[in-house]
Amino acid sequence: MNSLIRIVTIKLGPRSYPVHIGENLLDETGRICRGLLLKGRAAIVSDRKVADLYGERVSEALAKEGFKASAHLVDPGEPSKSFSVAAALCEDFARHGVDRQSFVVALGGGVVGDLAGFAAAIYYRGVPVIQIPTTIMAQVDSSVGGKTGINLSAGKNLVGAFHQPIAVLADTTTLATLGRREWNEGFAEVIKYGVIREKGLLAELRDSTWNLPDLVQRCVEIKSSFVEEDERETTGSRAVLNFGHTLGHAIEAVAGYGTLLHGEAVALGMVAAAHVSAERAGLQQEDIEELVSVIGRLDLPTKLPVRLSRDRILEKVFADKKFVNGKIRFVVTPKLGRALLVENITVEDLESGLRAIDPSET
What we know:
- This protein is of the alpha/beta class.
- The protein is 44% helix and 20% strand.
- It has a 7-stranded mixed beta sheet with strand order 1-2-9-6-5-3-4, with helices on both faces. Strands 10-11-12 form a 3-stranded antiparallel beta sheet.
- Helix 2 links the parallel strand 3 and strand 4.
- It is globular and about 60 Å long.
- The model has no long low-confidence stretch (mean pLDDT 95).
């Protein structure tokens, strides 16, 4: 393997796994799977757009190591994260002879990773899954940590399972085919890591001084530290990774899945959360301005689309899984580089945060 490939190990005891980061990893898929002692059929789950770009290459890499592979394709975009698509995927697995000895290869962005991971978790009560993320969003965040899921009309990711992959292959060369909007949205999660753990990331993003493989590695290392401490969100420490997501998920749902990209909605949620943090955690105005500046530098939104109703966004918040026992579990930042989960946030606080990103209020 290329000596420039970086490996970050997610340390979860018997569920530990490597995250490989570097160039041309798609060609290593079969060798890595063989090294993991996998056998049987490889069920490659991808969307039609990504499959056109990389499906044959991954199939050939698996075939070189003696694996039989079948392709299972879904439509691109958030609407594919549904019960109907998950059911169709499992039926397709059965038709192609995918069995207990087989494994799933999730080839694509966050939607494919979440959907394929969920299907792998429920098919035969769980088969192994390899994550091959092809977007910045998926490489720095969603492919790591074992969260899988589908959406309901009531909200995002309300049905799912923890199902850790047995490996992640983050091939940074795949990012060259992203459209500008998809490229930019992935950096919302990088900004989040800057807010909650490593403030220096924000300056690097603002000044364009980052190196892509280094950036992916650092984000994976940050996420791994939270996942290792609180794999299933039982203590609350992993929930800090949800900074900007409580309102972001609600904004995404109200806009209509696919209207705003996930990272765009999270960017809006982070700006709103920063204003809530000013009221509840003492975040300084200059920190809010720095965050807004970095978000804007990456062409991510800082104001809601005019047509979105703040009341409807709040309704979605209360359907969110972060609303527990009548309390709003919300991540705030007292200063950039640190965050904490609190439960004393009121509806009025959220309304104030939404007003801060409402263009009609300016």
